[in-house]
């Protein structure tokens, strides 16, 4: 049985570079004068946070929201990019970040991109920043 480090995860979805567009009428024509309004749902276990919607950002949204999660035994952080619409929001793509190399005894900072996919195909990249602060530093020299 593996011992899990508990602690705080500070998470920021900074920006995205999307390749999938959900603003289409049928399958071939873009909606006139329509741009995506992306936001991100970030989930760790049963806790979910949501960024603000970046109105008319299309495929290059950015955010300034920072969220704090309490990590217990969860192994992945999930990211779901959605396009806010009047009737129902459309999923743009999803990705996961393994916490195995981030939740370490001395804590760690992670800043990189997460690949987003939709139905097995690439949907873009989400650039995230994640800091882990363990409840107890278990290693000497931290």
Can you characterise this structure?
The protein is an all-beta fold and 142 residues long. Helix content is 0%, strand content 53%. The strands form 3 sheets. Strands 6-1-10-9 form a 4-stranded antiparallel sheet, with no helix packed on it. A 4-stranded antiparallel sheet has the order 5-4-7-8, with no helix packed on it. The two termini are 25 Å apart. The mean pLDDT is 89.
Distance between the termini: 25 Å
Average pLDDT rating = 89
| Proportion of strand residues | over 45%
Tally of helical runs: 0
Helix content percent band: under 10%
Helix-strand sequence: EEEEEEEEEE
Tally of strands: 10
Model regions low in confidence, pLDDT < 50 over at least 5 residues: none
- Rg is 17 Å
The helix/strand class is mainly beta
What keyword list fits this structure?
4-stranded antiparallel sheet; 10 strands; elongated; 0% helix; 142 residues; mainly beta
Q: What's this entry about, in short?
A:
The protein has 142 residues and is mostly beta strands. The protein has no helices and ten strands.
